[in-house]
Amino acid sequence: MTHSDEYRKPEVTRIIVTRVFGEGILFVEGEAHRKQNPAFGYAQIRDLTSLFLEKSTQLRDIWANSVQEKGDDWTRIDVLPDISRMTLDVIGLAGFGYEFNALNPSGEVNPLSQALNEILGSAGGTSIVGAMAGLVPGFQYLPTKAAREINAARKKMMQIGSELVAERKAYILATAGEKNVKVSDSGFEGRDLLTLLMKANMASDIPESQRLRDEDVVAQIPTFFVAGHETTSSAVTWCLYALSSNTRVQQKLREELMTMPNDMPSMDELMTLPYLDLVLRETLRLFPPVTATIRQATKEDFIPLNKPFTDKYGEVHDTIKVGAGDQIVIPIVALHRMKEIWGEDADEFKPERWECIPEAVSSIPGVWGNIFSFIGGARGCIGYRFSLIEFKALLFTLLRALEFNLAVPADDIARRTAVLMRPVVKSEAEKGNQMPLLIRPVRC
Asked: Is 218 part of a structural domain of the chain?
């Protein structure tokens, strides 16, 4: 994980994904990846906190109104789709200044959302068609139904994306003055990440060799959509499940959140809540949205082992030989639940464990929190700050107003993994992914 130049994403994976989305920040390597991350620091995310809280409040009110309309003590609500709609609205506005209105739909299908969903629905994922497209040169050009759908949707997406990029470029130049005036790194009002990325890319002190092409910038739109939408909604959904299963933790967290004197705290104020931070860490340990990742060696290497082993010939090894082209699976969820690392209570939801972590945990080279939920090293998720603050804003807003309980027995909820870890009710498997919870207003 910390040797990103020697271990990269497999070529097959890169081909399959980039043929659909282009060279977005999720799918490029090396210097190209480093060029594309100017807009994800805390200084930039700080300006987006109010948006996170506004959309969280909108979701809170939707659930509160639903509870009030039904008039029951507890109201059963499938929280997964609503959280997904909330994070879609957030990434649309915060990512590229685009209003999906998913939480308050007008009945009209949003063209960009439709194009992105068509691509995701037709891409094939782990299907034979998807694999063949990555393995066989030219296979993606065969006129299969999936290929036609992907190409049509991608064309539509790129058209809309190009329009958005042109609008942002015009905005930046207009706010900088005349078109021949140099663009500086400060002094414009646009807060969405696409605008910040373009502004940094257009700054006069950036060497020409480091500038992104317009098509590279357009490629960030589906990247923001995938990385900033479904992963966060999955994590928040599992967090509400964990809190519903553990009322002690839920109440302790709520008591801390209630100490905040206002409903619209700043990012810095959210960062001062220690138990909220522990709950996030424990959620992402037990329920990482991405359960595994793969890396491919670019050259021969020897990976050192913590404990030597003896092979069938009686020879002792303290390293494992990896050949050029060999692939290594990093089982994130398995590592996060290993009792040898986390202790005998590794499968339990215990935020307090983060107050004094085992020595073995402190050596995990994750980009945040000694876990691999955001990967690690130079190829770590550069949007992790965005995700964390959005996560905190959601929990802050929801837990101060609403109580959550299980709608089905805890052991009836299963983890279904298809790229992301999703919940399913085993007794209602035919309904697909869902997370039914009981909700009511907080009682004093």
From this structure: yes
Distance (Å, rounded) from C-alpha 295 to C-alpha 324?
A: 11
424 domain residue, yes or no: yes
Identify the CATH number of the domain in which residue 40 sits.
Answer: 1.10.630.10
Q: How confident is the model at residue 326 (pLDDT cuts 50, 70, 90)?
A: confident
Residue (of 172, 103, 414, 160) closest to 287 by Cα position: 414
2: in domain: no
- Which domain does 316 fall in, by range? 7-441
Residues flagged as binding site: 381
Q: Which residues are annotated as a binding site for heme?
A: 381
The per-residue pLDDT for 128 is 43
In a domain, 377, yes or no: yes
CA–CA distance, 228 with 233 (Å, rounded to integer): 9
pLDDT, residue 143, reads: 66
Q: Is the pLDDT of residue 389 over 90?
A: yes
The reported pLDDT for the residue numbered 408 is 98
- Model pLDDT, residue 278: 97
If you search the block for the tokens 């139904």, which residue do you land on?
145
Burial of 39 (C-beta count, 10 Å sphere; 0-12/13-18/19+): buried
